[in-house]
Amino acid sequence: MASPAPLPSHGPALIIRQEERADAEADLERSVELLRAVATGVIAHDRVVRLYAPAPTVAMSRRESRLPGFATASRASIAHGFAPVIRPTGGRAVAYDETCIVFDVVTREEDGAIDQMRFFKEIGDVLAAALRGLGVDARVGDVPGEYCPGEFSINARGAVKLVGTSQRAVRGARLLSGMLPLAGVERFADVLLAVNGALGLDWDPATFGSLGAETSGLPRATAEDALIAALAGR
């Protein structure tokens, strides 16, 4: 069966390399602002790619906020030095800080023309290819026991999760967000053990990987450039 044709892109993407630091809620609100701006035509570009270094955050989904253990999970997040927030996309809890790259991809969508699964696959494929270009044995697919499990996670060696993605759509545009850890992940694993424990969700902290563990001395700017080139369709 032939692979589907790439999703259309008209003109260059708008690239936003966010330099200013914001708090966790403001960064996630900015994602929604970009989604709405593309949907309404305030931003004329058909695709926007945004990268930033986040504040220490545990981002949970709206669904998790309705679980009985959410208040306990939020307190555990704060106790570990992470701000608990509700993210605008789906999935399960994820922890990150300024040692990570968080990215948004916003794509114009006419009348639901972009299939959710196809968009997950398209972005997963280009991210895996970009990471292979950096010397990582990167593949698309979930690792058993990973945090925020998903069919289109990007893993290393089939053993550890490197990138997870989640989506949200409004009439006229679609947002996909993700996160790539660059350095040690021990503090992320620690807080997620507490948070997921409070939420009654199982996972295996040994599956939490990072780019730094798969490469040697790769500068942040090199990783950012590779992600931008992939996500912008260059």
Could you characterize what this model shows?
- The chain is an alpha+beta fold.
- The chain has seven helices and ten strands.
- A seven-stranded mixed sheet has the order 1-2-6-10-9-8-7, with helices on both faces.
- A hairpin with a 2-residue loop joins strand 9 (160-170) and strand 10.
- It is globular and about 45 Å long.
- The model is unreliable at 1-9 (pLDDT under 50).
List keywords for this structure.
234 residues; alpha+beta; 10 strands; globular; three-stranded mixed beta sheet; seven-stranded mixed beta sheet
Number of helices: 7
Radius of gyration (CA) equals 17 Å
Q: Which class of secondary structure composition applies to the elements? A: alpha+beta
Q: H/E series, N to C?
A: EHEEHHEEEHEEEEHHH
Q: Name the overall outline.
A: globular
Percent range of helical residues: 25-40%
Largest sheet composition: 7 strands, mixed
Number of strands: 10
Instruction: Walk across the major sheet and give the strand order.
Output: 1-2-6-10-9-8-7
Note the beta-strand portion. 15-25%
Mean pLDDT: 93
- Unreliable residue stretches: 1-9
- Give the terminus-to-terminus CA distance: 26 Å
Short description:
The chain has 234 residues and is an alpha+beta fold. The chain has helices at 24-40, 62-65, 70-79, 116-133, 186-199, 211-214, 220-231; strands at 14-17, 47-52, 57-60, 83-86, 94-96, 100-108, 138-140, 154-156, 160-170, 173-181. A 7-stranded mixed β-sheet has the order 1-2-6-10-9-8-7, sandwiched between helices. A 3-stranded mixed β-sheet has the order 4-3-5, with helices on both faces.
